[in-house]
Write a structure and sequence with these properties.
single chain; 96 residues; mainly alpha; two-stranded antiparallel sheet; 2 strands; 68% helix
């Protein structure tokens, strides 16, 4: 159905009600990932891993974590790396 904004709102409410529920963090991280909100998704996913560092869901989330942490870095020379940061990712944190 792709009603992401409403899903984000509902998962954020669920996290406010129970900040220690890993499933809510897992779901919110996935929705943010689908919206290409990389930094918010990474932050929520990190919280998920704090709450549930092992298990099937943790294993399933490792590729998302790798994509979010490696996705913008590229080796451009023998001793250089270029990191591309989308300004909209940063602005979303400060203006949402």
């Amino acid at each position: 159905m792709e009603v992401y904004d409403k899903a984000v709102e509902n998962f954020e409410k669920a996290i406010q009600l129970n900040p220690l529920h890993p499933g809510s963090h897992n779901a919110l991280a996935r929705v943010l990932y689908l919206q290409q909100q990389k930094i918010p998704s990474l932050m929520v996913l990190a919280r998920f891993f704090i709450l549930e560092p092992m298990g099937k869901r943790a294993e399933l989330n490792i590729p998302y974590l790798e994509d979010l942490t490696k996705g913008n870095a590229q080796k451009t020379g023998r001793n250089s790396v270029t990191i591309n940061i989308d300004v909209s990712d940063i602005l979303h944190i400060y203006f949402s």
